[in-house]
């Protein structure tokens, strides 16, 4: 990686607190809690190496994407019972291959003593609206909840 790529990749990982809020990673991808929750359980699914364009993702990395997507969908279903998931690859500000993973809900949810709504349902998610941003501990709580759900889902699949 050249100096600019190192800066972009490092800046992306720091902005989204990928290591701190990591739920699970495989050889190619990391799934972490999104610091700003658009809907309950919003996450970031990012390539573990720098790539500026989706066309730079290798066949092996694409195969690994399928595996981690299955894991995150099972964990989110178990934890919060979503109705749909939006995978948004925007990359307008953060020029690194990643998806914003936005679970979608037809009805309200409650987590950590807080009420959650999907104000965009059934249309586009309201990306500019971050729910419960004043709750600094919330991303870590979500990480714990999703890791527990992932463990339970993995255990159920193995058993």
Describe this structure in words.
- It is globular, with a radius of gyration of 15 Å.
- The strands form 2 sheets. A 5-stranded antiparallel sheet has the order 1-2-3-5-4. Strands 6-7 form a two-stranded antiparallel sheet.
- 35% of the residues lie in helices and 20% in strands.
- With 159 residues, it is α+β, with helices and mostly antiparallel strands.
- Strand 6 (109-111) and strand 7 form a beta hairpin.
- The protein has 3 helices and 7 strands; from the N terminus they run H-E-E-E-H-E-E-E-E-H.
- It has a single domain, classed as HIT-like (HIT family, subunit A, 2-Layer Sandwich).
What is the helical fraction, as a range of percent? 25-40%
Oligomer: single chain
Poorly predicted residue ranges: none
Remind me, CATH topology?
HIT family, subunit A
Summarize the main sheet: 5 strands, antiparallel
Total DSSP E strands: 7
Q: How many discrete structural domains?
A: 1
Please tell me what the overall shape is. globular
So what's the CATH class? Answer: Alpha Beta
The CATH superfamily is known as HIT-like
- CATH architecture verdict: 2-Layer Sandwich
User: Major sheet: order of its strands?
Assistant: 1-2-3-5-4
What's the topology here?
Blueprint: H1 3-15, E1 22-25, E2 29-33, E3 43-47, H2 59-80, E4 84-88, E5 98-104, E6 109-111, E7 114-116, H3 138-158
Antiparallel strand pairs: 1-2, 2-3, 3-5, 4-5, 6-7
Please describe the structure with a list of short key phrases separated by commas or semicolons.
159 residues; alpha+beta; 7 strands
